[in-house]
Amino acid sequence: MAANENSGAPAQVEIALRRPIYLGVGQWLAARAWRPQAPPLVMLLGCTMLASCHEGPLDPQGPVGQAERVILYDATGIMLAVVIPVIVLTLVFAWWFRAGNRRATYRAEWEYSGRIELIIWAIPALVVLFLGGMAWISSHELDPPKPLQSAAAPLEVEVISLDWRWLFIYPREHIATVNYLVIPTDVPVHFRLTSTSVMNSFFIPQLGSQIYTMPGMTTQLNLEADKPGTYPGISAQFSGPGFSDMRFSVHVESSEGFASWIAHTREQAGVLDETSFNELVVPTRAEGELTYGSVSQDPFRSVADGSIATHWSPKEAL
């Protein structure tokens, strides 16, 4: 009797080894399908992700940033229309073809279905078509050099990315600032940007459209702010040991407040001349904000034309 029991054991082991591994996954899913749980850790993670939307591209404060957020939402919705059904169907198939479901049939000889092939290829083709159309239209409507439609005349600002600071020059007002920018509300701002040594990236997340600054050339960007406030600006391109501190603040004021700031700035004694500009060009870590009440030359043109030598040795760059 014992011999007969032992002789059946290898056969049972062989049958167990032949059972597909995915059946065990189906059994696990079926056992947990009717007991959904929401651990506090998952809920806390979701709240943390939502809290991080503050002061970023998902909290726009201008027409360009708002248009980019709409594109981001539309693109996410189109992709979720595919991702969510795929995830749900994956769980449904794993649950239906579990080992304990006797109604599920395995069709070993099945190999082709024209309808299924049409669905499989049509859905990603439509997704690519929609996303490509959105990218094509938005890339023309939100082209950085394209002027914004507004009744107000644009404010001209010249931007020079230094190592590792930001220099902002107001050519019409003949003033300049370092590591902070002041602009009025509801007035388009036309930026002309260049760099003294390496490529950098100018980005104000809540206003939108980052753009690169490159030595020896000029790029253009048009932005606008709708609400007064202070918004962070960053360098989005690694450019050396001082990259992490290469930040600036954007102070958005009302028209009256901006005019008052211009008048107050012109009364200050700082002058951006050749000597002070040469001091700024030398690589150094960010050391707070600076204000120049007058600009005696045109440093932006000198940098954009490549007439200023800005090649530094590793020792000089520290």
In short:
The protein is an alpha+beta fold and 318 residues long.
Write down the Rg: 30 Å
The CATH superfamily of the largest domain is identified as: Cupredoxins -  blue copper proteins
Using the 3D structure, state the CATH architecture of the largest domain.
Sandwich
Please, what is the average pLDDT?
81
Approximate strand percentage: 15-25%
CATH class of the largest domain: Mainly Beta
Determine the oligomeric state from the structure: single chain
How many helices?
A: 8
Q: What is the CATH topology descriptor of the largest domain?
A: Immunoglobulin-like
Give the biggest sheet.
6 strands, mixed
Q: Could you characterize the architecture of this molecule?
A:
- With 318 residues, the protein is an alpha+beta fold.
- The chain folds into 2 domains: 18-35 and 58-100 and 111-142, Helix Hairpins, CATH 1.10.287; 155-304, Cupredoxins -  blue copper proteins (Immunoglobulin-like, Sandwich), CATH 2.60.40.420.
- The protein has 8 helices and 13 strands.
- It has helices at residues 2-18, 21-32, 40-51, 63-96, 114-141, 255-266, 274-281, 299-304; strands at residues 155-161, 166-170, 175-178, 180-184, 189-195, 200-203, 211-213, 219-223, 229-235, 247-253, 271-272, 290-292, 294-295.
- A 6-stranded mixed beta sheet has the order 8-5-1-2-3-12.
- Helix 4 packs antiparallel against helix 5.
- The longest helix has 34 residues, at 63-96.
- The chain starts with a helix and ends in a 14-residue tail after the last helix.
